[in-house]
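Students often ask why inverse folding is considered easier than folding. One informal answer: many sequences map to the same fold, so there is more than one right answer. In these notes we will look at a single instance of the problem. The structure comes first.
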């Protein structure tokens, strides 16, 4: 993956983008290509926070690649062989499922998995309320998409614990669609964590977001694609910026 952009903030986000912390923080967007055409991952770093309790809410990311496993093996990184895939675990405990396939020019990120406690309830929310297309469904899982990557909902037994390391999934929609989402969620009796709000990024475009929660508390952000298309431009200086702030970080051992 490549560093696509890196941004620093001096105080907590009004939409809790960095979690429940009112401190200096940063976000780094990484992926296999531009955010306009690829699923990318946002790495959120809160200065001074040394660890987060990991829950069981996030199932993992499925990536197609004929090279990742060999590269991990060469670097001595643990690889666990599963059914039809290999499993890598990030330093923070997140699972990456690697399918041995060449991808050509397409996005290697194939699937993102969220764990849920009631599959039927979750499918109803994501498919009927959020209008995601259902592409597969079994006894213990369902797969949906807006086009591009697939969202997999996987049923787990027992309670779901989002703990402290929970994240948020985001989608870009036209500016004019956001108020309609607000109306749909209110009519369905759903949860709106953050009503429509504009967020500033120093020196970059302002975006408007609305943050929802599904029946299990998974956070969902809908950002306006007009503002986001400007904000998400690949920054060729981002690698250097990231390295600079890592070196300057007073909370990390040098």
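Output (designed amino acids):
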């Amino acid at each position: 993956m490549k560093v696509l952009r890196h941004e620093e903030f001096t105080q907590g986000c009004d939409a809790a983008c960095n979690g429940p912390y009112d401190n200096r923080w940063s976000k780094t967007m990484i992926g296999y290509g531009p955010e306009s055409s690829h699923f990318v991952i946002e790495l959120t770093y809160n200065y001074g926070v040394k660890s987060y309790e990991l829950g069981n809410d996030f199932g993992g990311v499925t990536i197609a690649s004929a090279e990742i496993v060999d590269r991990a093996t060469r670097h001595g990184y643990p690889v666990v062989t599963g059914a039809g895939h290999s499993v890598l675990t990030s330093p923070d405990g997140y699972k990456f499922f690697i399918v041995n396939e060449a991808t050509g020019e397409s996005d290697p990120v194939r699937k993102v998995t969220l764990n849920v406690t009631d599959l039927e309830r979750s499918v109803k929310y994501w498919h009927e309320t959020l209008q995601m297309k259902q592409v597969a469904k079994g006894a213990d899982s369902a797969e949906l998409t807006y086009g591009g990557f697939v969202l997999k909902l996987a049923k787990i037994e027992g309670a779901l614990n989002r703990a402290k390391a929970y994240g948020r999934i985001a989608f870009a929609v036209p500016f004019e669609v956001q108020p309609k989402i607000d109306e749909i969620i209110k009519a369905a009796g759903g949860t709106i964590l953050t009503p429509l709000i504009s967020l500033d990024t120093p020196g970059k475009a302002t975006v408007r977001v609305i943050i929802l929660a599904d029946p299990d508390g998974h956070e969902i952000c809908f950002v306006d694609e007009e503002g986001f298309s400007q904000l998400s431009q690949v920054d060729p200086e981002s690698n250097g910026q990231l390295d600079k702030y890592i070196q300057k970080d007073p909370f990390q051992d040098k």
